[in-house]
Amino acid sequence: MFTIHTLGPKDTNCEKAAHYWLEQKKLHGDIILHETLEAAVEKIKGDNNCILLGCIVYPYLHNIVFKNLNLLKLTDCFVMDTHNMLFASRFTDLKKINKVGSHPAPKDLISQVNNLNLNIESILFNSNSESALQCANGTVDACITTLKAANNNGLTILHDFGPVPMGFSIHTKIN
Fold this sequence. Notes:
The chain starts with a strand and ends with a strand. The chain has helices at about 15-25, 35-45, 60-65, 130-135, 145-150, and strands at about 5, 30-35, 50-55, 70-80, 85-90, 100, 120-125, 140-145, 155-160, 165-175. About 40% of the residues are buried. It folds into two domains: about 1-80 and about 165-175, Periplasmic binding protein-like II (D-Maltodextrin-Binding Protein, domain 2); about 85-160, D-Maltodextrin-Binding Protein, domain 2. It is α/β, with parallel strands linked by helices. The protein is built from five helices and ten strands, in the order βαβαβαββββαβαββ. Its EC number is 4.2.1.51. GO terms for molecular function: prephenate dehydratase activity. It comes from Providencia heimbachae ATCC 35613.
């Protein structure tokens, strides 16, 4: 069985991209979601019929490429719209927001939210979906996340940035 290893948990843009890539290539396969792409690379070492799907804005994707030249090679790239990117919260009142969670890649979207306290604390998580989960669990008051993750975690949408045209990379295992 063919497997795509990519960033999780459920509802990440990478998971959406994996489904999209399979559909475009008319392939069937499993998608395995990992806490980080670095963790995905470790799992790939023991899996022979698999690929790694990465996002071109993933922090340190260059390290994954250059540290694994004997394991993986870049074989494909494509552009796809992400899920709508959002500023979401458990609260509706911006004054109650003191901590905002985000994946490192879209964290600059925080500064685009009007009337937000300028002294908020920013906490980084491994994915947009993880940010939504941590917001729902009370670790942070608000988050930058995807529409799908916000809905699945019962968060209130305070600002919708819309979808973002994004690049994704396919890395094939060298046999």
